[in-house]
Amino acid sequence: MMKPVVAIAAILLTTPFAEAGPIDNACIRSDRGARSPGLCGCIQQVADQTLSRADQRRAAGFFRNAQQAQDVRMSKRAADNQFWDRYKTFAATAERYCAR
Predict the structure, then answer these.
(1) pTM exceeds 0.85, yes or no
(2) What's the domain of life for this entry (predicted)?
(3) CB distance 40 to 73 below 8 Å
(4) Which single residue of 17, 46, 56, 87 could bond 94 by disulfide (Cβ 3.0 to 4.6 Å)?
């Protein structure tokens, strides 16, 4: 059996500092029914690994306004297409990783 101090140290050393990122904040504030601190935190962890901070801020806007996502997806601009490719990778990874 692990002593409480050792268990707490193990958790603290393996868990990132609790800093809510733009995706986590947008997810928590979302009016969609699936929001939960655990799920939103998981999605933020995936975002931290797959998106730049600027991409995270841009993607966070999709939680407030789904039309923004559609506009980016349909855009003919190269920068929008490159962002959309990164966003799709993030979304697919989050879906696989956070659906556990």
Answers:
(1) no
(2) Bacteria
(3) no
(4) 46
